[in-house]
Amino acid sequence: MNIASMGTYVVLAVCGLLLAAAGVTAEHSLQGLEFTPRFTRLLRQDLNSVPSYLLPTGAPSLCATECCQSDSYASPYGLFSISNTQHAYGGRTYTTFNFVLHSNHTCSSLLDKASCCTASADTVWVDVDPTLKVNYVLYNGTRLASAAQSQYGLKLGSLNLTVAQLKGGIPVAITVEGAADTLCPPSGLVPLPGLCELIIQGGSAANPSACCPNTVAVSQSVSVPETPIFECLASSSNNRFKLVFDGVTPISSQFTSTSMAQAAFLRYNFRLVGTSTCTEGIFKCCNAQLAYVNLKVTDLPISGVQLGGISFNYSTSSWNEPNSASYRSLIVDEVNLMAEDLGSTGLTLTVMVRVPAGASAASLDLCDASSDPQQGGCSYYLHSEDGVCCPSGIALPSAGVPPPPSATCAPTQNVPVTDTSMSLQYYERTTSAATTTFAFLLANHNPVLGCSKSYCVDVCSWTLYLDPNIASKVAVGHENPQNNDRQTIEAGSATSPASLTFNYGPVGESTATFYVTLPAGGKSLSDLCARNALPGQGARPCAAIVRSTSVYIMVFFDESDVIIVPGAMPPPPPLEQMCTAPRAMSDSCLVAQSARYNTMSSSAVFDFPVAPVAAGATCQPPAAPNDLATVHLLLSPATVDQLTTRKQVRPSTGLLLDRNYGARWQVATTSAASLSFQVQGPLGIAEICKQGVTPDQPVSTCVVEVSGDLGCFRGYVTATADGRLIWVEVSISKKGVGASVIVPAVVVPLVVVLLATLVVMAWYRRRKGQQYFFMNSGSDDLDRPLATQSMNSLRDDMVTPTASTTDVQIRVPGASQGGAMPIGRR
């Protein structure tokens, strides 16, 4: 046959397929014909490789022994395209495309030359985009082991279905790695995006390869039983592999170890190690073979990769995951390792990076921490060949994460945030002229019926790393006052940053809000948090760790992550625990009087007294004489946080502090009492008390309520500056509460201390003056009183003679009684 004739038949073949009206005569004499599909997009690319089974009936001479019937109108089989969904497992996004394989197409007996209307459907070929990697195929709810992807598409083999079996339809789910909008490239049959071309191979017992209808999947809304979606097994407890990071070695241009300042290359040292235990999960991964290693990396130039000291091929590619920034992926393929190959110490994996010209080696980092704001360190994914085993995590140096405080849960396994039921968010920042409060929302999504994450756990503690310069100044607030004091503040050391650890967290399906306050206005996260507290923190100002008993996550955030943006309307003040119908404070027999305060440069002292009214006054008692009344002072949340954190408040017992409602304490209705405290910062009455609680509250006043069984009274207390107020911290002996406990002291006017000192000094000088005067006097009058020194004088030349009934009289003999003549009189 000449070349021109061949070209003519090729053109006829393509035209026949586009019209979809050609039939091919089947040859029944051959058994078990080797079937190699060629989809129409491939025909358009290479017209010289037209397979004979796709040639139209008009060329019987070319179809003597190897033809099958490809007319879709002469076949009952088809594929409905239902939907596609995206989901993330093991740190990677997957897309699942859902189809229904059926036998409900009308089959034309006039076009059926090979009895394909009643033939079986043994193998289905789907023209999957060759740039996609198929990870998993679910067939009728179970994994299809006979599925295989090749250059010819995706083969679903060994189905062996009849027309009757497919009448009700069988669901097929195809999962590919990555975020994909379509599974297949545009077909040559119907060049529309999103439609998949397929070939259904089958036949009869006489000729198993008689039929190969070529058609496209049709979008259809079909009700099918819900099938499980693909989920690779990412938990390290169900796998035998993990990756650890051993550090970075600076390498000179002569490929020897050197200092960071002289480094031309950086060698990143990892180790593939086996886990100590492995529990079989849904998929059998404990004996799976490791196929390839995937690391999230930055755009630094990689010059080589070695595994176990042997150079390995590697590739890099860009990924763009949904709801995430793009990142670069380093893939070390064809690893093909079993856990037994790693030995007791693991297998070294080194990545050599060239230091760019003019760059500082100390500031470089191969591992991508900015691509995922919820993760840090070296994120890795270890995949089996079939994709169902994907242990993942963050490779960290052994000393990379500071240990938690003692008596706190201390898990050692770090996992990505997306794999756990725990999450931490920077919720809100509120600032005034004197304080800045940061709110953090910690959530746990672990319902009783279980969750969809790899690690369904409960929070046991979490830590925020603080700037060491402000660690001693922070005040801590809890959403529930029952959790007051359940925090640990550590000042930090040369090897560990300062930290604030909350020793509890939400469990089950719940949330909890935590508050951290600085005693200054206009502060930001950069003022609150420690830089470089955790590996992978990068340029983000804040780092935190959230722990369960088994795993922990690292969270990094900055001002852009805040949920409640500044300027939003604040919620109304809580009124649930206030009196519903209060009477005026002036009607009460126990009244809150004007407060006193002393505002200094770095702190402030306040005293809020309550006292019974004068005897005989007309008033209403809040409680019976033998009962106690409750005093409610509506302090601001930031003030309550300071009092619960530092305990500089009196009384220290019987006092309830709630950041939502202020302070409550009980007093007797017949005796005076007061609430005294010290706070950090030069605060005034407007900062320490809630403002705008009620419409009639005057500016710069505090709302106070006195209540009991007989009534409730509300008043608005002003404050008077009193420079005599100071706060004295007294250490009580061990006979009391223990010498190491600092107890709030009584507010003592400074002038009283000074006067007492002056009295002692004056008395001493007076005694000395009396002795001097009478020992040198010439008077014979024994009834003459001694000269005394004024209590307010400290100088001898200011002594004046006075008489007092309490003076000590010292008599000495005069000259007439034989005494010596005074000097100057002799």
From TrEMBL:
Organism superkingdom: Eukaryota
Keyword Transmembrane helix: yes
This protein's UniProt keywords: Membrane, Signal, Transmembrane, Transmembrane helix
All copies of domain Pherophorin, residue ranges: 67-213, 251-391
A Pfam cross-reference name: DUF3707
TM ranges: 741-764
Signal peptide start and end residues: 1-26
UniProt entry tagged with the keyword Transmembrane helix: yes
UniProt protein name: Pherophorin domain-containing protein
